Sequence to fold (909 residues):
Amino acid sequence: MSRKSVMPGFGPTIGFTLLYLGLVVLIPLSTLVFESFKLSWDDYVHIITSKRVLSSFRVSFIAALIAASVASIFGFITAWVLVRYSFFGKNIFHALIDLPFALPTAVAGIVLATIFQPSGFLGKLLSDLFGLQVAFKPIGIVIALIFISIPFVVRTVEPVLLEFETSMEEAGSSLGATRLQIFTKIIFPNIFPALLTGFALAFARGVGEYGSVIFIAGNIPYVSEIVPLLIVIKLEQYDIEGATAIALTMLVISFFLLFLINLLQLWVRKRSGQL
Amino acid sequence: MHTAAQPLKKDKVVTQQRALQDPTWVRWSLIAIAISFISLFICVPLGLVIFQAFSKGLQAYWSALTNADTLSAIRLTLLVAIITVPLNTLFGVISAWAITRFEFKGKSFLTTLIDIPFSVSPVISGFIFVLLFGAEGWFGSWLVEHDIKIIFAAPGIILATLFITFPFVARQLIPLMQEMGNQEEEAALSLGAGGWKMFFSVTLPNIKWALLYGVLLCNARAMGEFGAVSVVSGHIRGMTNTLPLHVEVSYNDYDVVSAFASASILAALAIVTLVLKTALEWKQANR
Amino acid sequence: MSILLSDISKNFGNFAALNHINLEVPEGELVALLGPSGCGKTTLLRIIAGLEHTDKGRVIINGQDKTDQTVSQRGIGFVFQHYALFRHMTVFENVAFGLRVKPRRDRPSNDFITKKVHSLLDLVQLDWLHNRYPDQLSGGQRQRIALARALAVEPSVLLLDEPFGALDASVRKDLRQWLRNLHHELHVTSIFVTHDQEEAMEVASQVVVLNHGQIEQQGSPTDIYDHPANAFVSKFIGQTNIFDLDEHDNDWLQTAGLLQPSQQGKIAHVRPHDIIIEKTDNHHTAPATLKDWQHLGALIRIELVKNESNGSDAPVFAEMPNEQFKQLELAKGDKVKLKVRQAHWFH
Fold:
């Protein structure tokens, strides 16, 4: 299997890796696939095409799509500012970007719900100013997912911006390009694959996100009920079949996204000459 | 999926000087946009946790923290972390060694498999263990017969957390060890060192900061995981509630002080994680 | 200690990196493995060290078959191309490493280790750096520390992978001389890999020329230069003019009376210093025109253009001492006569 290497320990380490991976990840995950064999195709289609399930998929996907887009735009600006400019408090700012990674989702969930509820600090402000209610509406889901998405975009774009050869900008400028032309014709095309990867990562995470969303979403069936929540609800109703069908669909979508993200990352690395 | 970036390289700070070519108004508007965005989505939520936790005074905060249910949630959370973090750390080091030090077929596929738990919804991560060990599950009746409780008990929570935090350490080590190459290790071998000696005197010192960093992230997630744990725990107060679940239960009971008191512990954990993470990034870059 | 390689072969996938290599290195020699990049020289060095496995063949060091021993057991010293110093250890600890990892019963006392390390650091003239970390050293200093580290375990053979490859030109010159002197002092059998023929000729007592995973020639620098075994070696070592008697240059060579067909082959390689230039008054029959010249220190390199050649328009290069060139009083555009002192013939 392996090219003989002088480094010691291939047998034991690869053996342990495969065993542990199998026990902790692959076997548990495969139960979902085997469980779904109990369903007939018609049952499956019936469950997935029920109005409530379709609505939940629509809510999850649209919310994740909008949130990832918003996070991509602002995340890009944030990464740009962090890499290119220096200003007071930049280091603290830099460290805070990862807060959504580190803060448990339940905490994020209750905090966002408290801020955006009609009596909350921002919720009151928004409804007074624009008559906009955020909490317990689909837009609440978007807010929660933006929070979750920020570090994915910033942390994917940032290293590529750091590696970016500024001499390319200097070359562009020496050839008479304006700053805007340099940005649109030189910088952006080089950063774009990374930005797209960040977007995809944020989107994939957003579709499956649970903890930070359920507190702010209101969870009204057909309106603001997300797919992961519907799985939990089916499970609580002892509807294992329903939960399995939805979970399997989600899993397939996740794997597809994972595959897509791997392709994107390959593209990024090729672009930046690491391959 | 978690791309918590590689530590930044120090020699890259130079770019700032030359890049200050953007017009001043562009620069300051972009800085303003970024700061407002991050403040709105990150600083305000963080401040609110502290504000709410202390909204009824220090006394109420303290009694919320020392109440029996909260204490039991803290105990369970610690237990989960103490079991899962070392296991996944061990896995991370061993798998990174196998993957970065040898050439074999299916290597990149294996690396992708390791990432799987990042891309699976937390709810599904919990659900698969219900399918395996729940009352209706594959081993359900056997477990009932032998009076073993996994789902709605600590073992289920531990298993789900093990799954969720599985890739963290490996994810940090693989790119680093790949980039490092194995010349120093070859040098150690050529000087007569055995395998273990080489690992402890050359490999480990070189990866220690990244390893700690992975452990830190793994720990933060193990203590903070909500979705997966929520599915397998059954929310039994004082029994199977971890700290994040305790936050949820209290919040749903309109016990705001208790919810935010518990949340403040988790937020403090997050902040400590970020501070240590920043320190470790710096250490790794100046290794 | 002598090194004997018998019938070594190594493939990477479909690529044959080494093809039936047989090589004997007598005790105390300083051998250069010389060849273009990708010729398999580094792979061969790593196989001798035990850092790479062979597909076939035996590695015998001092009469003992070491093929199945790991790199740690072989007792060799290896100096890596980029030094591979342990970044988290001081210079002192780097050099002491090989002694500290010995099994307890063979491990010398701390006092002995301290003395030994300092004497090695003295040997490489860097004892004053013993408390520094590798990151604080210059390239040349790292190189010498890497050498001291490899020597600490008193290796039976010393192997160096492109020892001067990563250094500045001036540092490289000094270190070459220094390595040669060090070898005279220690007399440990050493092999180093290089792609720089000048370096190989200057430092080594024996040169092994490799190409496409095969040994083209082995011999002393003088042997290799004066009696190249084949066209590859002749082209790779030093400058050479190539004349093909069957092809385009034939007519020109005949007219010029430069080279007569030989039993030894059809292609003649002529070193620039074997071409003698003479002034001529007969401008019509002169075979070459002086186009340009360059100073190479004590020598002058003269670039000549062939007159009336319907063959290749490659210039002919000749070299002669400065003084001699001045006496000829030539100017650009002058027509000259040529003579060939000696040629190497290949098929």
Q: What stands out?
A: The first strand of chain C starts at residue 3 and ends at 12.
